[in-house]
Amino acid sequence: MRKLLHAAGLRYRVDSPPLRTMRRRADLVFGPARVAVFIDGCFWHNCPLHGNMPRANTDYWMPKLKRNRERDADTDRQLRAAGWLVIRAWEHEDPTEVAARVIEAVHERRVAVRGKRHGSLPV
C-alpha cells in the first residue's frame, strides 16, 4: 500500500505519533492534511472476520484483546477531537482499495486546509 501512496505523490511519516502529546503511534501520518492511518492486525485488534481467540490462557487473552480495542477507540476519539481524520483498515483488506480511500481522504483534507487558510471555507 505504501508504494501505491508514494506513486500517487503522497508523502507521509511511518510509525509516528500524530500528536506530539500522544504516545500512541499511527502506521502512516499525513501531517498537513491531519490524516492518521492505522492498519490493524486481525489477531491483535480482534477482527470480527478473522480474529481468533486463543484456546490457551483465555483469562489473559480475552481482557488483553478487549483493552486493545478500547485503546483503539480512545485513540480515535483523541485524534478526532484534535481535528484529525482517522482511517482504520484491517490487514486482510485489499491494499489497492485501502490506498484509494487514503488518497481520496488526503486530497480532500488538503483542499479543505488550503481553503481555510485562504478564508474560503467557514471555520
UniProtKB/TrEMBL annotation:
Family matches, as Gene3D superfamilies: VSR Endonuclease (3.40.960.10)
Name this polypeptide is given: DNA mismatch endonuclease Vsr
GO biological process, one term: mismatch repair
Gene designation: vsr
SUPFAM superfamilies: Restriction endonuclease-like
Top-level taxonomic group: Bacteria
Keyword tags: DNA damage, DNA repair, Endonuclease, Hydrolase, Nuclease
InterPro entries: DNA_mismatch_endonuc_vsr (IPR004603), Restrct_endonuc-II-like (IPR011335)
